[in-house]
Amino acid sequence: MIQEDVDQLFQQQIAEWEFVRQQYEALSRIRTRDVMIDESLYRIQFNPARALSSAARIDKASLAKRPCFLCDPQRPKEQKSIPFGEDYLILVNPYPIFPKHLTIPTRKHTDQCIRERFSDLLDAAKALPHYVLFYNGPKCGASAPDHAHFQAAEKGSMPLEKEWKALEFRAIRSKGEAKLCYLNRALNPVLRITSASKEDATALFELVYDYLEIRKDEVEPRMNILTWYEEGKWMIFLFPRDSHRPSCYHDEEEYRRLISPGSVDMAGLIISAIERDFKGITDEELAQILREVSLPTQDYLQLIIKLKKHHD
Ligand SMILES: [Zn+2]
Known about the structure:
Largest sheet: 10 strands, antiparallel
Bound molecules: zinc ion
CATH architecture: 2-Layer Sandwich
Distance between the termini: 38 Å
Strand content: 15-25%
CATH superfamily: ATP adenylyltransferase
Mean pLDDT: 93
Number of domains: 1
Shape: globular
């Protein structure tokens, strides 16, 4: 069983890799702060070790200059891996957000994209029942957009899993075993697919994908995806995105908020690498960040109408 192999990998890496042991120990001491916005819980995590990732430069020139940290020869020699399928490796993430945090890159250096890999993501969720799997699009939080990868977080770490799951999702359409729903709210809009069938879930995902816009010079619609497997079903949450980073990220030093949202932030766990942001960010600033990086409400509502009207 892969899940057991991963549990062993964790124990082994913590025992034998001093840097990683310290990183996970530091994580156990970090602070969080809860806020309620529009009746949804957001948990802000102060995580200074994530500064590298939040500030990662991902323009083509910067990527070409740096050695890819997901490619085999450049990875730390202490970092062990276990194979997943033919194409992937499972690694312990040395810069954790979660008490157990995995990175699942492809063996080959190839661009981040989801359409052809969506069913692999579902396979990984099923193979790792203790984890929530997630995908950050190349302009939506991935710090290595030039090397395809998923990540995984130990279950029970994000507001989405408990608090939001109980929110009232409304039906859009179904396909065989799979149901597509939406959440009727302006802030941080999200679509949900639930399904016991991988094929039906994939068909609904592709339908949504095809209705989302692909920007000029980009390879796919901007999105974040989280999924997990429970009681014989996949739960899949898709956040359609707008801006890569909020405007405050680019503000003058004095006003800057170094927050660069990915799947985890969209799922209610806001990662703040700077103490000033962690302490000082207001509810209104946070709401503004979420508005800027999410598909605008008008587009979200139009998307839902199109999805409802679509004829197979
Ligand atoms: Zn690479």
